[in-house]
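Lay summary. Proteins are chains of building blocks that fold into shapes, and those shapes determine what they do. In this project we predict the shape from the chain. Here is one chain we studied, written as its sequence of building blocks.
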Amino acid sequence: MHGQLLVAGLLLAICVLIHGVGTHAMQGLLRNRIAARQGAWISHPFLLLVVLFLLIFALHAIEMVVWGVAFWLVEALPTLGEAVYFSISSYTTVGYGDVVLEPAWRTLGASEAAVGVLLFGWSTALLFAVIQRLYQQAD
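And here is the predicted shape, written in a compact code that computers can read:
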């Protein structure tokens, strides 16, 4: 179990790095958009939100693939496709149960769900801040 927690900690660190770099880049784009107001790279606030949602979705997709590759590399699941599918199910906390880990790796699977919840929370906070800012601009 200690080995699984170490792997989970490493994967958490990788995902926080991905999310941090990605959201920092998005923040820069948003600052430029908000500061410029006119002639911005995206002129309509709803289009800006669509782009932001797509970028956030891409970050989460990358993070799910990272976990999937890890499950495959430690041989917790036999194929990369099955590992990525399991990862998507775990990260989003859907947990269909049609693909399950061997008992030796279950702690790692549960850890991914905790990481997914935390990173979705981060994304939600970012979206809330952007939407709040857009409403303030509209007033």
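What the prediction tells us: Residues 2-36 form the longest helix (35 residues).
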